[in-house]
């Protein structure tokens, strides 16, 4: 069988590209080295982490908030095996859903490790030792990423773990050290902090979630400290030593020689992910990578070899599932002769802690650096009736608008349900709305979304109504 297009990797980039290619009439194949489809996101990323975030938040709310709501509970306890089982069920249903979509769209699925023989031939090495060969006109590489695990940290998957293993622990640990105050460290740190684990986060930079707006970092850190999490900012881990049961983590102050060590049951390494191109045979076709190991692509996501494209975590840009999906759709539509476009500035970024953090567009630091004149409006959730009703008063919304034109340039939210609320900001920014436009749109009362309108009122002549 010769295919119009073959996709290597079935994560959100790959499987969405496959569906769109099939919708556009291309004979499509997809190769996946693992038994289930869905990639990092569905198997060991977005979906299982959100399942555990939800379960742990229920427990935490029952523990900390129910009494104030007038609900009495006795003998509350965590059933970790059940929590993990529910997570596994969610993952299975979601992966099965992707398998169904492949069938529905008549996409041929090949299980095995794909590698280039030449630009039009991919070999698939199966688990049983056999190989199969696929002939194809075009190829889309969507092989994703893997956690970065420096040798000095002695990653052993047992006590020194990454997010993958942290999603399957059988018991709630007493103590956990997390290396990296980025999104994985804080999401999974929240899961275990809520379940009762003492969490210490070691972050090299001077703030957590350093890629996001500085006010988001401050608000989130305040909330996570209340949850009991401890932070060592401007510190680095030099080594992780395995002990009889647990680990000893050696920490050094970033700007001095001061060191100390922390003993814990687990050390979670969450310092970023690297593009995954192992044994892909890129050298057989001469595909170039950049200095960070990412496959180099042009604005059409085409590699230096015509007809071979790459998308998602394996190329430059933010490592997010919805970014990978957009890129999958873009390449499929390009192959069909259409003229699609992605506005990378409008890809939202969300951290699923509680309060949630969500942002889109430019941060205040980026606007300063680019010399763009801007004004800012902020509104705290504690001034919102809806937030007081649910006792979710932590956080704020900040709107950054152009000083002269009033166009919204960035929206940064920390608070309840901001992961969903950011969609309004994305839509409005896509249509180049001004802060005044939002200030004049009715928002249902009482809802959390009123905070967005109030922040826009604050950004336009400082006229927030409830502050
Ligand atoms: P992947 O999802 O990594 O898929 C690549 C696939 O290719 C894998 O299945 C792999 O087995 C396969 N593959 C690799 N090489 C070969 C080969 N040679 N042959 C055959 N198959 C191969 N993003 C969000 O947007 N929201 C979130 O909430 C979120 N949460 C996350 C939580 C965690 C714990 C982690 C680790 C990540 C999270 N992410 C989240 C990031 C998200 O998972 C990735 O950005 C996304 O999965 C990237 O999609 P992809 O298609 O590029 O690659
Ligand atoms: P990250 O890049 O978000 O954070 C890594 C953090 O580790 C940074 O703050 C960095 O300064 C710090 N760091 C790096 N080296 C260090 C060292 N040696 N010592 C101490 N700190 C160090 O990476 P993370 O959290 O591993 O996540 C990987 C990617 O997965 C993210 O970039 C994100 O794109 C994706 N992801 C997205 C989620 C979401 O959208 N909600 C959830 C989880 C992951």
Helicity range: 25-40%
Overall form: globular
| Termini gap | 66 Å
CATH architectural group of the largest domain: 3-Layer(bba) Sandwich
Report strand %. 25-35%
Main sheet record? 7 strands, mixed
CATH level-3 fold name of the largest domain: FAD/NAD(P)-binding domain
* Poorly predicted residue ranges: none
Rg from alpha-carbon coordinates: 24 Å
Ligand species: flavin-adenine dinucleotide, 1,4-dihydronicotinamide adenine dinucleotide
Number of strands: 22
Overall pLDDT:
97
**Sheet/helix structural class:** alpha/beta
- CATH H-level superfamily of the largest domain: FAD/NAD(P)-binding domain
Number of domains: 3
Please work out how many helical segments DSSP would assign.
Answer: 14
GO biological process, one term: 2-oxoglutarate metabolic process
GO molecular function: dihydrolipoyl dehydrogenase (NADH) activity; flavin adenine dinucleotide binding
Active site: 445
Binding site for FAD: 50, 114, 143-145, 313, 319-322
Structure explained in plain terms:
The protein has 14 helices and 22 strands. By secondary structure, it is α/β, with parallel strands linked by helices. The chain folds into three domains: 2-145 and 274-344, FAD/NAD(P)-binding domain (3-Layer(bba) Sandwich), CATH 3.50.50; 151-271, 3-Layer(bba) Sandwich (FAD/NAD(P)-binding domain); 355-459, FAD/NAD-linked reductase, C-terminal dimerisation domain (Enolase-like, domain 1, 2-Layer Sandwich), CATH 3.30.390. The strands form five sheets. Strands 1, 2, 3, 4, 5, 6 and 17 form a seven-stranded mixed sheet that branches. It has a five-stranded parallel sheet with strand order 8-15-9-10-11. Strands 18-19-22-21-20 form a five-stranded antiparallel sheet, sandwiched between helices. The structure holds flavin-adenine dinucleotide and 1,4-dihydronicotinamide adenine dinucleotide (NAI). Flavin-adenine dinucleotide binds at residues 8-14, 31-34, 39-41, 45-46, 49, 113-115, 142-145, 163, 184, 276, 280, 312-314, 319-322, 324, 352. Flavin-adenine dinucleotide (FAD) binds at residues 8-14, 31-34, 39-41, 45-46, 49, 113-115, 142-145, 163, 184, 276, 280, 312-314, 319-322, 324, 352. Its cofactor is FAD. Belongs to the class-I pyridine nucleotide-disulfide oxidoreductase family. Its EC number is 1.8.1.4.
């Amino acid at each position: 069988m010769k295919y119009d297009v073959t996709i290597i990797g079935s994560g959100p980039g790959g499987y969405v590209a496959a569906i769109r290619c099939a919708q556009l009439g291309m004979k499509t194949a997809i190769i996946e080295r693992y038994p289930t489809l869905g990639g990092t996101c569905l198997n060991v990323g977005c979906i299982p982490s959100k399942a555990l975030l939800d379960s742990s938040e229920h427990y935490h709310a029952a523990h900390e908030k129910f009494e104030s709501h007038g609900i009495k509970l006795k003998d509350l306890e965590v059933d970790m095996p059940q929590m993990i089982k529910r997570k596994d069920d969610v993952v299975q249903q979601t992966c099965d859903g992707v398998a169904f979509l492949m069938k529905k769209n008549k996409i041929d699925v090949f299980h095995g490790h794909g590698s280039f023989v030449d630009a039009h031939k991919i070999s698939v090495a199966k688990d049983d030792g056999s190989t199969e060969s696929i002939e194809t006109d075009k190829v889309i590489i969507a092989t994703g990423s893997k956690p970065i695990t420096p040798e000095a940290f002695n990653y052993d998957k047992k006590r020194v773990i990454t997010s993958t293993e942290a999603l399957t622990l059988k018991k709630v640990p007493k103590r956990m050290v997390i290396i990296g105050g980025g999104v994985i460290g804080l999401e999974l740190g929240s899961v275990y902090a809520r379940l009762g684990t003492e969490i210490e986060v070691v972050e090299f930079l001077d703030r957590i979630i350093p890629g996001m707006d500085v006010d988001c970092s401050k608000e989130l850190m305040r909330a996570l400290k209340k949850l009991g999490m401890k932070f060592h900012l401007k510190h680095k881990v030099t080594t992780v030593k395995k002990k009889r049961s647990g680990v000893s983590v050696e920490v050094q102050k970033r700007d001095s020689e001061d060191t100390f060590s922390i003993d814990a049951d687990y050390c979670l390494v969450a310092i970023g992910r690297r593009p995954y191109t192992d044994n892909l045979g890129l050298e057989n076709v001469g595909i170039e990578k950049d200095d960070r190991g990412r496959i180099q692509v042009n604005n059409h996501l085409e590699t230096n070899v015509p007809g071979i494209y790459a998308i998602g975590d394996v190329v430059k840009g933010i490592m997010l599932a919805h970014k990978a999906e957009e890129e999958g759709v873009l390449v499929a539509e390009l192959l069909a002769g259409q003229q699609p476009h992605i506005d990378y500035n409008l890809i939202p970024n969300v951290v699923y802690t509680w309060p949630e953090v969500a942002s889109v567009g430019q941060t205040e630091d980026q606007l300063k650096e680019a010399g763009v004149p801007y004004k800012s409006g902020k509104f705290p959730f504690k001034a919102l009736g809806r937030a007081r009703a649910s006792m979710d008063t932590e956080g704020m919304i900040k709107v950054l608008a152009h000083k002269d034109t009033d166009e919204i340039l960035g929206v940064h939210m920390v608070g309840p349900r901001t992961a969903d609320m950011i969609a309004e900001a994305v839509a409005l920014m896509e249509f180049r709305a001004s802060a005044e436009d939002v200030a004049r749109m009715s928002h249902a009362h009482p809802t959390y979304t009123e905070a967005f309108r109030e922040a826009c009122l604050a950004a336009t002549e400082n006229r927030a109504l409830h502050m």
